[in-house]
Amino acid sequence: MNPITDDFNLAGSHAPATDAFEQFGATLKGRSLLSMAEITSDEFAAIMTVAAGMELGHKTESPFLKWTYPKSLAMIFEKPSLRTRVTFDIGMRQLGGLTTILGPAEIGLGQRESVPDVAQNLQGWVDCVMARVFDHQVLIDLRDNCDLPIINGLSDFEHPCQAVTDFYTIWEKAGKLDGLTLSYIGDGNNVLHSLALAGALAGVNIHAACPVGYEPDPSVIGAANEIADGRCKIEITDSPNEATVGADVVYTDVWTSMGQEKEQLARIQAFRSFQVNSELMALAKPDAIFMHCLPAHRGDEVTDDVMDGPQSVVFKQAENRLHAQKAIMAMLIGK
Ligand code: CP
Ligand code: NVA
After folding, report:
1. Could you say which ligand is closest to the alpha carbon of residue 314?
2. Is residue 254 lining ligand 2, measured as CB closer than 6 Å?
3. Integer CA distances (angstroms), 107 to 80, 118, 122, 123, in order
4. Tens digits of pLDDT across the chain (335 residues)
5. Which of 5, 13, 52, 178 has the most CB atoms within 10 Å of its CB?
6. Angle value at C-alpha 224, between 87 and 140, nearest 5 degrees
7. At what angle are helices 136-144 and 115-123 packed, to 10 degrees?
8. From the CB of 90, is ligand 2 less than 6 Å away?
9. Residue 86 to residues 99, 136, 154, 193, 252, Cα–Cα distance (Å)
10. Other CB atoms closer than 10 Å to residue 230's CB: what's the count?
11. What is the whole-number distance in angstroms between the Cα of residue 254 and the centre of ligand 2?
């Protein structure tokens, strides 16, 4: 079974996930996940299939892993988190592993101690590192200075674990991915970068509407269209209506990301007409789903009636962070 081309239907069987884990576990083992551009379309499909197995096996024994000793995960947080923190922590422990959480004041990444020195210390103690950082370069420096898999738990440039969850959720809720269209309304930020690359890998058209001056990095959109190779289109407009017409998925994120708080007033002005409300949702397909990575600023980028309405899958999407995170960790840490 392949999430990109086949409908979501495990029929209660762990076999597809076990097969995907066996087939792609070897190629992903020991690798980092800093960007969606670092995995192939087949590897992305395999991670989503393993996530489906994790969901099927939730609250029962994991069918994929029999670690000979409890593997361990260090989590570094330079920014706040609810979803990423809980799902990596609980997910690792459900896999039979151990976790430790390091706040910025504790380790002083790059200040109390250099990033390469932190990486080499951690290598002596743990099997994997998940880091949420301001500057994407810190993730690259961690990865380049140790042999551990480094997982991007959000940087200023990408949020790949969110994109894996999001596409897994779309597969579960909207059926096979190939040929769908996701309309993204809002900031050309880390979340959009990862969604654009994920769309390219999965054959999902991404129609993004961003205010002038808040577009995504053109190099990411160029890379996404190169990966897509004509199979789907990654397009940017400044018209929310144009981006939303006929969409299967309508997605938004906060207007002001963590670290941009000083720009908040200017951003509220610039994004005022980029709200997902019932009028905008009416332009999408009647059975379109609404998604948001959360946290949501209700009344800004999304209205209460959309967020709490029948098309919204935001809390299932948040739940799926757990299953997707477990799949990512299982495959990168390996047997
Ligand atoms: N979506 C997301 O990453 O949520 P947190 O910031 O709460 O981890
Ligand atoms: N773009 C947001 C995503 C939060 C999960 C941020 O970086 O703050």
Report:
1. 1
2. yes
3. 16, 8, 11, 15
4. 899 998 888 778 888 999 999 999 899 999 999 999 999 999 999 999 999 999 988 777 665 667 878 999 999 999 999 999 999 999 999 999 999 999 888 888 999 999 999 999 999 999 999 999 999 999 999 999 999 999 999 999 999 999 999 999 999 999 899 999 999 999 999 999 999 999 999 999 999 999 999 999 999 999 999 999 999 999 999 999 999 999 999 999 999 999 999 999 999 999 999 999 999 999 999 999 999 999 999 999 999 999 999 999 999 999 999 999 999 999 999 98
5. 52
6. 55
7. 50
8. no
9. 11, 22, 14, 24, 22
10. 6
11. 7
Q: Which atom of ligand 1 is nearest to the CA of 318?
A: 1
Q: Which residues are paired to 33 by β-bridges?
A: 151
CB-ligand 2 contact for 133 (6 Å cutoff): no
Q: Quote the ligand 2 centre to 184 CA distance (angstroms).
A: 14
Give the C-alpha separation, 52 to 63, whole Å: 12
Single out the residue of 197, 217, 155, 221 nearest to residue 36, CA to CA.
197
pTM of the complete model: 0.97
Ligand 2 pocket check for 325: Cβ under 6 Å: no
Residue nearest to atom 4 of ligand 1 (CA): 83
